[in-house]
Amino acid sequence: MALAGPQETITAREAGLVSCDNCGTLAPLGSRRCARCRASLHSRRPNASQRVWAWLLAGIVCYIPANLYPMLLTSTFGKVSEGTIIGGAIELFEYGAWFVAVIVILASVVIPVAKFVVIAMLMLGIRHGSRLSAHRRMQLYEFTEFIGRWSMVDVFVVAILSALVQLGFIASINPGPAAVCFALSVVFTMLSAQSFDPRMIWDSLEEHPPRVRR
Amino acid sequence: MSDAESRDFHDAETAYRGFSFVWLVPIVALFLTLGVAWKTHADRGPVIEVLLKSATGVEAGKTVVKRRDVQIGVVEDVGFTEDGGQVVVSVRMEKDVAPFIDEDAEFWVVSPQVTLEGISGLETVLSGSYIEVSWDREVGEPKYRFTALETPPLTPPDTPGRRVRLIAQDGGSMSIGAPVFYKRIEVGRIESKTLTPDGEAVVFDLFVEAPHERRLTEGSRFWNTSGVSVELGAQGAKLKLESFSSFLRGGITFDTVALGGAPVQEYHLYRLFDGEQEARASIFDDDFGAQIRLSIEFEGSIRGLAVGAPVELRGYRVGEVIDVIADVDDNEGVPAVSLVVTILLQPSRLGLPKGEAEESLEFLKTLVRNGMRAKLASASLITSSLYVELVDRPDAPEREIDETARPYPRLPSVASDLDDLAASAEGVLNRINALPIEELLEAATDLMTNVNVIVASEDTRAIPSGINGLLGDARVLVGDPKLAEATGDLAATIAAARAIVEQVNDAEIALSLQAALDTATETAASIRVAMDETPALIDNLTRLSGTAADLPLGDMIVAATRLLNDADALVANEDIKRIPADLAASMADIRGILGDLREADAAVGLADAVREAGAAAAAIRAAADSAPALMANLTGLSETARDLPLDDLIASAQTLLQNADAIIGSASVKALPDDLGAALADVRTLLGDLREADAATNLATALAEAGEAAQSIRAAADSAPSLMANLADLSETANALPLDDLIASATTLVQNADAVIASEGIATLPDDISVVLGDVRVLLGDLRDADAAQNLALALERAGDAAASIEAAAQGAPALIDAITAFAKKAENLPLDEMVASADTLIRDTSALVRSDEVRAVPTSISATLANIDGLLFDLRQADITARLAGALDAATSTAGSITAAAQGVPGLLTQIEALAATIRTLPLDETLTRANQLIASMDRILSAPGADEIPESITAAFDQIRVTIADLQRRDVPKNFNDTLISFNGASLAFQGLSANLNSVMPQVNALAARADSVLSEFDVGSELNYEAITTIREIRDAARAITALVATIERRPNSLILGK
């Protein structure tokens, strides 16, 4: 694929323009507000880097208790069992429900962790350059933004189960502290991804030309 | 480029420029997470290890540790001890309970258990086993390793209560956990049961829960109540089962036997007795006061006296025998063995203060000085066990407690009466032996056999079915709807009665009713008096009615009818029609004579005579006052007469009538009118003669004489009362006379008369009578002198006075009734039958006599006699006896007054007549009446003939008076009343006939009833109390009926209950 080199393309900023994040309208650089949708206009999002890192850190911090504390408090006939995310998944594996286990693992472990990694990688790539092409990195970012919301599946499952299974002494399910932590973690991660300004990828190309194997 | 670069740079710079507040988010998140982590760690309690023999039901991470069902820990790990001998369970405890997990904490596994006490730990069936922990409320040194109990502790460590320790000879049947009872209430349990270190005894640890631990004192005694205890004692056999639980697991009971014991400390040591009696008897285990030991020396055998035997004071146990030893005394060189019994006395049982041994001994000394002695007594007749009794013998020789005696002070004893007792017991046994028991048994066997035969007989077996049938009948009877109807009727009657009473109340006529009742009460009393006499009277009446009913009145009526026919024919004769004309002519003559008399100034003399006659009448009236008594006698007489054989009399009368009929029907009689007419003509002639003879002067003289005669009559009348009394006496005597004879004579007479009338001589009588009539005619001429009309008026006045007397006499009616009754009784007793028979015979004889020729000749003689009479009359006329006749007339008038007065007794007679009338009513009167009507019609024709108009005015006046009287009577509805009376009497007499048979016995009851009715009537005044009583009674009857119904139903269901008596 023939990627456009820096010389081949011209950015909006270079053209003295600023595009609206909302509607894509181009406005002269320095405009405060979009003429069309009245959104505030930034050539680059302010403090984007700091925000991304801060949200990411918060997400990671929340993810730790989310895995240590029990996600579900299941009491059956007075017996209370606490299930962490991983424990629950393993249990499902043991019961032979590997499909569900895989989904749980994907949604609860793989995706969040992947998001942390991808965002951190992108941020580091902006600063120090990356072996990946800018375009690939762009794809990664879009994938991350898309897939991030699916991590909430776990939280929804917990919420639905808690609402449904309230049979008193026979069986009842309550959300554990991990549910809150996990939800926070996902929210923070999504905020982090949102704070990321993909234009920075392109900007970084100027500082760190891609080490393209020629 | 530089500009762009700088701008780029600027923008690039801005991307990293400054500090974003977003960083606060991760920082806060980090702190929160760290905080949560720290808190989680800090909240974690200590991990302790519990050693178990087996980890049944214990799972790591799932098994929890609870206290009072509150989770306070989770098992984290299950493993083995280092040496691999035991299971080690690591438990993460909650931090807040960690301080209590110290030395006292106890752990055990709770799992489902089924024990004798019940099922426990059922909840662990579902939730799985858990570890229970208990600790006391004191914080102690932490401990981290525990050995779990094999079974749950019986008493949680902090349970309020007290533990005591018991020592027993053996373990008994008590198991750990067995209950402890106090007055049959479970107050604790046995916690442990261990041997003493030396293995000699068993030690029980008991826990008694609060608040019952307060019952534990030094006076408490524990005994074994395991299983069933059977006591065979003097009071009989006792079977005791404390509770089912204790039956299975054993149990211990305690009670406070001795009062005044101090509360005990924890782990106080008690003795465990085998039974309650032992426990209660053993009062010496603990020192509740100084115990006094005394020795007693008994003479004679002490066989049956064992250690432990009670010492009793008047039946109250105060101690026990603790030793029996033989003591050898060196009595003046001769060794003698004496038996010494040692007893232990409990002063507290004697009511002495505890702990004062000296005082107690002093007290005992006083008792002994006053005569207290020890004595052996038999505890029971069957067993030969003995006990020591402390008896009072004030008359015994004075003794003291020998304090010098060894080993203990000696109590003086007295000889027991055991030997006598044994002897008498032996005597009893001998007598029992001598009883003919075998014969008795044989007789009993025979009896049983006979009874068996009786019971097995068919008749006996039929009894139940017979009873069933009887019960069925009874049920049918009880279920009879008529019974229910009767009850309904009764209720209706009561309701009606109530309604009446209410009406009476409403009408507020109580007062007037009361007054009326008072009167009624008095009347009832009078009536009761009168009624006492009534039955007898009614009897007589009934008998009379019966007799009257039997009379052959019918024939008589027929004869009377025939007579009337003939009379009718006679009256219809034309000659009779001429009589009025003759009468008119006679009357005209009489008028002429009267005119002459007026002229002759006879009026003065007549007035005098009349005055005298009035006085005489007054005297007669006085005399009439005493008539009632006479009448009473006469009534009695008439009653007697009624009982006489009237049948024959009537038969004779009948015959007489028939003969009379024949005579009247004879030609001679038909010729009589002619004679009468001639006689009247003679009378007229006589009258004409009289006028011519200027008899007026003679008449005046005659009147003077009449006045004198009246004076004499007055004098005679003055003596009339006494005469009346005599008459009364006479009639009374007559009552007593043998009337039978009289009646018989009368009957004979009538029959003779009959025969005479039937004789041919009678046929000639009319002629003679004609002659006599002629004389009479002449006599009538003389009668002109007498003013008969005035006398008649006077007589009527007397009759009026007499009526007043009748009223007075009527008041004497009860007395009359008395007399009647008495007389009737008397008459009853007369041998009338014989009399009647003899009368019959007599009459037959007389009839035969009459039929004789001599008697037949009598009429002829009579004719002759009549001729003589005729001659005599002629002589009389010649003798001018008119004046005397006038006087006689006056006397007759006064006599009539007397007769009227005598009629006062008629009412009494009337009642008798009424009875007769009732019978008569059934006779064929119609025909008779028809004939009578015809007769009257004929008479009417005669009367309507010319000349009847000229009947003398005086007679008319008399008739007027009679008419007035009749009108008066009519105004008072007398006839109607009389008629009604007759009708009612008819009904009443019929009823009386039916009742009479029972009335004699009924009347006394009626009297009593009347008396009771009197009181009942007075009770009605009170109001509804009677009502209430009646309703109550009916309710009781109804209840009784129900009960009977229920009983019948029960017996129907279970007939054998009759035999079983259930």
Can you offer a commentary on this structure?
The complex is a heterodimer of chains A (214) and B (1062). Chain A is elongated, with a radius of gyration of 22 Å. Chain A has helices at residues 48-68, 85-95, 98-128, 134-148, 152-164, 177-195, 199-207; strands at residues 17-19, 26-28, 72-76, 79-83, 171-175. Chain A has 2 domains: 1-43; 46-207, Butyryl-CoA Dehydrogenase, subunit A, domain 3, CATH 1.20.140. Chain A is mainly alpha-helical. In chain A, the strands form 2 sheets. Chain A has a 3-stranded antiparallel β-sheet with strand order 4-3-5. A two-stranded antiparallel ribbon of chain A has the order 1-2. In chain A, strand 3 and strand 4 form a beta hairpin. Among the domains of chain B are: 47-147, no CATH class; 161-281, no CATH class; 302-341 and 350-430, no CATH class; 437-469; 608-909, no CATH class. Chain B has 32 helices and 25 strands. In chain B, the strands form 5 sheets. In chain B, strands 5-8-2-3-4-1-9 form a 7-stranded mixed β-sheet. In chain B, helix 9 (458-479) runs antiparallel to helix 31 (1025-1053) and helix 12 runs parallel beside helix 16 (646-664). Chain B starts with a helix and ends with a helix. The relative contact order of chain B is 0.06. The model of chain B is unreliable at 1-15, 947-952 and 995-999 (pLDDT under 50).
Task: Give a brief outline of the structure.
The complex is a heterodimer of chains A (214) and B (1062). With 214 residues, chain A is mainly alpha-helical. Helix content of chain A is 56%, strand content 10%.
- Low-pLDDT sequence parts of chain A: 1-6
Work out the helicity level of chain A.
55-70%
Span from first to last CA of chain A? 14 Å
Largest interface: A-B, 33 and 28 residues
End-to-end separation of chain B: 134 Å
What is the total domain count of chain A? Answer: 2
Mean pLDDT of chain A, to the nearest integer, reads 81
CATH architecture of the largest domain in chain A: Up-down Bundle
How many E-type strands of chain A?
A: 5
